[in-house]
């Protein structure tokens, strides 16, 4: 499974394996609104951007990835995993799903394939979380959750909340030359221990955050 991150067409050269580090404020928004039960598993840890923030928040983290970015345990294929790592009670990650944008050869990605890959990831994550009777938090594009297949999949699980980021994510940092993000993102949070009689909530963050 290639490690790709959601990113808009920015005009910048694409990173190796489409890896883009998640800004720390994005994870802080999740932690502000979701009471995670640790230890937490980060299965697409990359350089540790999400895992480090969760660890700084006081929760133990098990970090793995298929590729080696110098953090966590490399060589772990998420799709080959049948359970959470021992003791883990929550899964938190920025799923690798690509953006269907320009490729190095100038061609366009296949949006249908991107959507199917994302659905496959979320479906597997939900299955693992159900077996652990745990929590799941995934960073996705806000518009993605409105897709017919995505909405059906999300509705099939114990969706607890949608945390909409009111600030767009900048995947590159080039000072004053940095382009503004073109997409809105959100955290979708599931909890297999939640009261199913309570409707999922939608929250907005950061309203006055960093």
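^ structure tokens above, recovered residues below v
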């Amino acid at each position: 499974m290639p490690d790709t991150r959601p990113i808009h067409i920015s005009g910048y050269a694409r990173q190796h394996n489409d890896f883009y580090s998640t800004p720390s404020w994005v994870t802080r928004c999740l932690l502000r609104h979701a009471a995670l039960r640790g230890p937490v598993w980060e299965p697409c840890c990359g350089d540790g951007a999400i895992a480090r923030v969760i660890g700084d928040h006081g929760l133990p983290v098990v970090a793995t990835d298929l590729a080696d970015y110098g953090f966590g345990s490399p060589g772990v294929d998420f799709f080959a995993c049948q359970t959470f790592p021992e003791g883990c009670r929550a899964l938190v990650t920025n799923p690798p799903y690509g953006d269907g944008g320009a490729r190095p050869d100038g061609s366009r990605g296949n949006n249908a394939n991107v959507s199917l890959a994302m659905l496959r990831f979320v479906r597997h994550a939900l299955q693992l979380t159900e077996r652990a009777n745990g929590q799941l938090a995934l960073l996705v594009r806000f518009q993605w959750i409105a897709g017919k297949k995505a909405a059906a999949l999300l509705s099939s699980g114990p969706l607890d909340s949608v945390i909409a980021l009111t600030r767009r994510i900048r995947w590159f940092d080039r000072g004053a030359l940095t382009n503004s993000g073109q997409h809105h993102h959100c955290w979708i949070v599931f909890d297999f221990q939640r009261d199913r009689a309570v409707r999922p909530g939608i929250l907005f963050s950061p309203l006055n955050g960093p």
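The domain at 16-205 is CATH 3.40.50.150 (Rossmann fold).
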